[in-house]
Amino acid sequence: MTTLRDIAMNAKAWPFEEARKLVKRFEKRPPEKGYVLFETGYGPSGLPHIGTFGEVARTTMIRHAFETISDIPTKLLCFSDDMDGMRKVPENVPQPEMLREHLQRPLTSVPDPFGEFESFGHHNNAMLRRFLDTFGFEYEFASATDYYKSGKFDEILLRAAEKYDEIMAIMLPSLREERQKTYSCFLPISPETGRVLYVPMKEVNAKDGTITYEGEDGRDVTVPVTGGRVKLQWKPDFGARWAALGVDFEMYGKDHASNTPIYDGICKVLGGTPPEHYIYELFLDENGEKISKSKGNGLTIDEWLTYASTESLGYFMFQKPRTAKRMYFDVIPRAVDDYHQQLRAYEGQEPEKQLENPVWHIHSGHPPKSDLAVSFAMLLNLASAASAHDKSVLWGFIRRYAPEASPETHPGLDAAAGHAVRYVIDRVAPFKTYRLPDERERAALADLRGRLAAHQGPRDGETLQDIVFAVGNEHGFEPLRDWFKAIYEVLLGAEQGPRFGGFVAIYGVEETVALIDRALAGELVGAAA
Question: Could you identify which of 172, 318, 472, 493 might form a hypothetical disulfide with 358, taking C-beta atoms 3.0 to 4.6 angstroms apart as the criterion?
């Protein structure tokens, strides 16, 4: 009998491809620590963005795929590099002048500009955890500050002192000549100012576990590398953390790809085995630029969830992780509808195909049924045409199309209606551009208005679409898409739109007639102005 595990071992979806690499890693013996450790790293120099979430979501997908084909226990550790010095003030936070006074201090020593937490680092860590908890991720959170100060990294730091020359031999070739002269893998925390110091070492004493450097007052300072008095530069820190914790899997963005040999080499020097890696492409904003925490460009986590469900964001993350993708507001509607299309397809698929379906990975093997009786794109068009400011208006249209649906029986549809109204108010209405029809378009629209008003037959989408097609053909539109383009621009104030017969079926024949009347009278152009 073929089992789910048998099928999964041959599944082509990328999470299974990565999971099988981990199975091979432990085919001779299981990990000594008793579990496979998945890690994600987070630099809390700014507010968490969607790319941060994507790293955790995708790692979780691989983790679940691994659990499907292996009995070895797993853990996911979300590690915050919150002991890093704040190198610049983010552009999207309050009190920038106050923050400027704390440049180069560890993020967990910088006051919270929002006035809510112990530090800026604690604030950003809390924002990350809040979002991860919203999605129900199973993870453990770790703070670099806690690990350094509590002594959890003491052993690896002492080993780094012993292997200092070997670490430097890996690092120096990757640096510019001028930087090589002052570089050290150790960064002391100034006892006087609390700042992270980028200074050369005068001595690294492996026997005593100390470093000596010239302090800010010009005098030599000797401190232990343990107890949180010293941290590692970020590249050595990457490899050292892998060695210290026994990390088995970590993914990171393409901007880190060239550093992989450095991370691996330092991990090996410190006695560890480098983890399996997965390098993904970066997200881009509307201008094709890399999304940045400090710039605050692109979509934020909360912005996506204002306009769509968490699952739609998970779907977006699943798609082609090794392809650069624009992540801006206009990708949301399609992500919602494509996600629900996959949910509907899942029910009738064979097990082999189900494991290829994104929703299997988004929902850890237990996807729900879709209750989106009306597509999100259609909800947007309905909200736009009706100038809806409340989802109850949309429900008046939805019940006409799906009389069995209600907010209680279709909670996903109800949530989508609310999201659609907000999306239209914020992202569609301010940018709608209506135009007046030309002479031929006016005649065709008047003809369509008359036929709809006189129509006594079925009011399903196909029948009404036939009427729309007939009008376009009889008025000589060639190609016919010019007729539909005119409908969208004149009636909906957009260059693209829904299958218009389906729109009329849901929006209502009488309501569509009234909409055409307003357009022919010039009222839509006037209202937009």
Answer: 318
